[in-house]
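Field reference: sequence -> structure
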Amino acid sequence: MRINYGAGSNRRVGIASLFLAAAFLLVHALPFNSLTLKAEKRVNEKADPANTPAEILRDPKILPTEVERIRQAILQAATSGNIDAMRVPVEMNEIPPVIAAEKTGDPIAYWRKISGDGEGREILAVLIQLFRSGFVRQGQGTNEELYIWPYFAETPLDQLTPAQEVELLTLVPPERFKAMKQAGKYDHYRIGITHDGRWHYFTTSVD
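Structure field:
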């Protein structure tokens, strides 16, 4: 008996081949950051809450309204290029944020003084970079709920993936990165905002 593989069969084979090719391209064309997010999601899902750091979050849409309000105010001031614009988010608080271990007086004058460029623009750049990273949430559902950028501040550095190490290197130079890994602790700038939108701190240490 002779089997006839007609045009219909050829079309089915062709469609199947196109489908497989499209699937291959879709999988292998995924953005690098998307793969990083999936890896973090798997780690977060398998995490033992008693022995692991807080979940790494990246979507600002989950932030409470008041937290997002102050975050946007800080970003707007930072992207202006003028350190004096930071007075707006600073004065949105009843109490200014903690910005150093010692008393500093006027935050704007202090930032201008410690900034490498002398105009405070380095500080503005740091703020923008911090908000580009993931964040963590501490004390969820309590009066002490706090949102912290970057997540490295609450993540053991010996648990970072290669992609996360690259992300950390966008915040600090290689020498600082090596020193942090040896010490096992992130010691660069971090931002803390309470659940009700109070800018709690912007400093290199909260000890």
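Note: The radius of gyration is 24 Å.
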